Amino acid sequence: MTNPIIKINVRDFGTMTAELYPEKAPKTVANFIKLAEGGFFEGLIFHRVIKGFMIQGGGYTEDMGSTDTPSIKGEFKANGFMQNDLKHTRGVLSMARTSDPDSASSQFFVMHMDAPHLDAQYAGFGKLTDGFDVLDAIASVKTGSYGWYMQDVPKTPVVIESIEVVSK
Q1: Element holding 12 (H helix, E strand)
Q2: What are phi and psi for residue 128, nearest 5 degrees?
Q3: pTM of this prediction?
Q4: Which domains are assigned to the chain?
Q5: pLDDT of the residue at 150
Q6: Are 117 and 69 contacting, i.e. CB atoms less than 8 angstroms apart?
């Protein structure tokens, strides 16, 4: 059995291809695929970009309107889910969350560089196989604050045109 493959198509930047790992985070992968196949990510942005760390998207529209999807259980070791041993190395996809370990929904991030302090604390669920140049280009955009509550927001929106599931 082969792992699911997705393509993250980003306006003006190109495509990142990733392999997903249902054996490490089955509910996370199933939720992500369901959202992608339903067109949920189309038109959303990477709203948090920190060069040398990660790019985060899947939660806001271009006009900074927020989206909402049901939360899923956090599939990572610190939350009692021992089978997820994926390290947060360059290119890894992982689920964003609040301080509540079971608050992941649609927001995800792609590691720009290694961040071992996230290992076992967040649900990693895939890894880029291609498009590292796109990741680097996005990580290099100019950022600033949006209001008093959001930092590291790209000055020009970085828009997800689509996330397509190439194979399941």
Answers
A1: none
A2: -60, 140
A3: 0.97
A4: 5-167 (2.40.100.10)
A5: 84
A6: no
